[in-house]
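Hi U.,

Before I forget, here's the chain from the pilot set. I'm dumping it here mostly so it's searchable later in email.
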Amino acid sequence: MELISLNSLMMAFAITIFVSILVTKMGTRYGMPTLFLFLIVGILFGSEGLGIEFSDYAYTQDLGSVALAIILFSGGMETRIKEIQPVMWQGVSLSTVGVLLTSFATGFFIWWLSGMEWSNIHFPLIASLLLAATMSSTDSASVFAILREKRMNLKHNLRPMLELESGSNDPMAYMLTIVLIDVAMSASSGMTWDAIAVQFLKQFAIGAGLGWACGRLCAFVINRMKVANPALYPIMLLSLIFFTFALTAMCEGNSFLSVYLAGIIMGNRTIERRKEIDNFTEVLAWLMQIWMFLTLGLLVNPSEMLDMALVSVLIGLFMMFVARPLSVFVSLLPFRHVTFKSRLFVSWVGLRGAAPIIFATYPVMANVEGCQYMFNIVFFITLLSLIIQGMSLSAVANWLDLSLPFEDKNENFGVEIPDELKASLTERTLTDEDVADAPNLIAMQLPSTSLVIMIRRGEQYVMPNGSLPLRAGDTLLIMEKEMA
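Structure:
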């Protein structure tokens, strides 16, 4: 019986994963966010679809925490300090002040809705603020998946700003959610506002401190511990991610902030087996996203979610057109160089993702008043956000004249170089004018710090030499030494 049960579980997991990837491939042609498609597949396989029964909020919360830790660490690894430095304070302001303003504006709106006679929700003020707090973070994975599918980049350093905001506002939303749960339960726990403020500051300080320390520790261990099999390096990294997350939690700090900062610290240092580690974290992050999104889809009951449709639509539209723009414009007030169009676009990039749905399980587990409605409201608003904002993201960028041609370094070559070389790779496609001026590499007179290491000609790759005749349309892969 156990064997049959295991086989059935493996078959269900295999089918849902395969169907999710297949549907994603079809849906991205129409600009549909990957996260939305995964959630829909989960719903279709759930109790009111094909009949997979699942209602374990505790398991979902635990899985979501592990998945978010890996996703945030992977996002931190991909964040380059050089790119975010010019927009660091803008991103930090959006992820802190912006989250607070979004939470409070939306919370008071929910409280106002709760007082309406026609409304089917009746939350007290603290519960309204708590519900808003769970939805106060944005989703980076969906934003950049859409930009990549549409072959778009963004002007005015908007991409690193949004990357920093979306990576750092999950920890802020988590802290706010936990604090408001404590406030909601304070009547029975005896917790005072002073104690709550201390807890908030303590979580932030411990999370940031241990994130910085563990990031340096991870890099030190990876570089100093020589292992026989290179495949063990990524596995050792995974153990260090879990160590960072668990240690921070044991010290009562913010574990999500800790792993994100650890990822940034480690991603910007020279480490052994960078290519294997980067590939591993990217694949693992995708697996965690798929598993997490499918699980969340299985957990929701569409009939219960539709009962909350009217208030969910009103709350969702308020967040899109009032709370998010308000928080963005106020957060960016000190930064006068950020253009009005940029502020408008950032206001529209308020996509809700998996994190709000996971955070919505915390009130359920704490049995906060009205928790039976919170999860379904958050889920519905997430789907609404992904449909309206997600599918229109590229159109809004084009309308505001903020889009740029997408540049994927080494897209045609797939070549990587070790960090120790202190060099970078760039591509250059030759025009008729280029070839007329320089018929071969010798005539190009490249700087002494540059070297052509490969040429792509149509579907073929050509080894370069000085006398090789060049043609219009040839793409050169150039290695350039970084100047100290």
